[in-house]
Amino acid sequence: MTGRERSAEWLKAGGLRPTRQRLALAELLIGDGMNRHVTAESLFALSADAGEKVSLATVYNTLRAFCEAGLMNEVVVDGSKSYFDTRTDDHPHFYWEDSHTLTDAPAEELEIAALPQVPEGMTVSRVDVVIRLRRAEQGAA
What we know:
By secondary structure, this protein is an alpha+beta fold. It has a single domain (3-133), classed as Arc Repressor Mutant, subunit A, CATH 1.10.10. Helix content is 32%, strand content 17%. It has helices at residues 3-13, 20-30, 40-49, 56-68, and strands spanning 37-38, 73-77, 81-85, 93-96, 101-104, 130-133. Strands 1-3-2 form a 3-stranded antiparallel β-sheet. The chain has a 3-stranded mixed β-sheet with strand order 5-4-6, with no helix packed on it. Strand 4 and strand 5 form a beta hairpin. The longest helix has 13 residues, at 56-68. Pfam families: FUR. Keywords: Cytoplasm, DNA-binding, Iron, Metal-binding, Repressor, Transcription, Transcription regulation, Zinc. This is Ferric uptake regulation protein. It comes from Rhodobacter calidifons.
């Protein structure tokens, strides 16, 4: 299956019309079958490098549409920086403070024993676990 075909199927699975811009961005995200963590800015740069004429506003809008269609998840770090993850199952993340990147953390090593009781009339929709990493200081134990 080509990257373009994989992208068209992905959009179809989310019920999204395969416009030229959606197809181009989808191919950059999942065309090779690998999962990715991107910011709108990094996807915009990738699209420019690939010769695609897509505005940053279009990238933001398309990423939001992909999330609303259930094709991606948004992971917010520090309440201000959004990363978009093509892997949609529940899994934790490492946030690398020195490089400002987000990667998957091994889910099988995470144990959550309990969650707080949710307010009446509410249900848990998702639990995001972001483990922040920074280089250990030399000589620190």
